[in-house]
Specification:
Layout (H helix, E strand, L loop, with lengths): L2 H13 L17 E2 L9 E2 L4 H5 L10 H15 L9 H7 L13 H14 L3 E2 L4 E3 L2 E7 L4 E7 L4 E7 L14 H9 L7 H5 L7 E4 L5 E6 L4 E5 L10 E5 L5 E3 L12 E6 L5 E6 L2 E5 L2
């Protein structure tokens, strides 16, 4: 069996990555990659079949954000011991441990082993098996002639960041200036970290992202005293939540301290279906549908 067929059957399909492949044949649904920004603008690149150029399995996976999201879902399920069909918990955990703590000097193997152990204990960072570690984050990235990519995994909060770009100079890398990955993790991710109020609090069923796919996109985060509403379309949404408090009417909340749009009259009504599930949020006269 070829490597491509084996990975398709044993890894990609079981995970749900059904639009990903290592096959080297070109297809029409591949995006065009572009050079960095030049005086003449960006120039398109001919798709580099890197898998054929340097050999599988070194590189060459063609995939999408949605498929990589399936990979992250599998990753979290496996680390919780809920999924064993590709790897078991111990194997994946072993892969994501630090096996080489990068230093500027070469140490004898017994000293390097001690440094590796210390790095794992203190979350200093280093290299695992197929993964890189920076603090408590697990990541992997790459790029070639018009394409750059990165996955960042926060295992503690079960949050993943996926960035795919089709230009050589896109600031994707976690440690690059203006990093898209870093910004997503620092600005957006805190809104997805689950707290106790979300799990067992009386407002837990309001947690969702609400949008009308145009001007409004909010994430509702339950708290003990009410709901924090974050505008995901603002430049830094997690710094200025709209704090909603309940009224004496079911599913109706107000934000008496809100200073922006609808000042002093910011009112939200959550709507439910016949099964009593929250399906949308009515903001004044605009209805925003739940998306999760």
């Amino acid at each position: 069996m070829s490597y491509s067929d084996y990975v398709q059957q044993k890894v990609l399909s079981p995970i749900g990555m059904n639009n990903s492949t290592f096959r080297t044949e070109l297809s029409e649904d591949l995006v065009t990659g572009y050079t960095r920004l030049l005086d003449a603008g960006r120039q398109p690149n001919i798709f580099p079949e890197i898998g054929a150029a340097i050999g599988l399995p070194s590189a060459g996976l063609k995939t999408s954000v949605n498929d990589l999201a399936q990979f992250l879902i599998w990753n979290f399920s496996t680390l919780k011991g809920q999924d064993h069909q590709v790897l078991d918990l111990d194997t994946l955990s072993y892969m994501q441990r630090i096996h080489w703590a990068q230093l500027e000097i070469v140490l004898p193997s017994f000293l390097q082993g001690a440094v590796n152990t210390l790095s794992n204990s203190l979350d200093i960072g280093g290299v695992g098996l197929g993964f890189f570690r920076q603090g408590n984050l697990v990541m992997h990235g790459g790029g070639f002639d018009g394409y750059v990519s990165e996955i960042v995994i926060d295992r503690e909060n079960e949050i993943g960041v996926i960035v795919l770009a089709n230009s050589s100079d896109a600031p994707v890398s976690f440690n690059s200036q203006h990093s898209i990955s870093t910004n997503l993790l620092e600005i957006i991710a805190p809104g997805f970290a689950v707290n106790e109020a979300e799990q067992i609090g009386e407002y837990s069923d309001y947690r969702n992202i609400y949008t009308e796919n145009n001007f409004f996109k909010y994430i509702a985060i339950p708290r003990q005293e009410g709901i924090d509403l974050y505008d995901l379309l603002s430049p830094n949404p997690m710094t200025s939540p709209v704090k909603l408090i309940p009224t004496n009417k079911k599913d109706r909340f107000i934000a008496p301290e809100h200073k922006g749009v609808y000042q002093r009259e910011f009112e939200v009504l959550f709507l439910r279906d016949i099964n009593n599930q929250v399906t949308s949020m009515q903001l004044q006269v605009v209805t925003l549908n739940a998306t999760l």
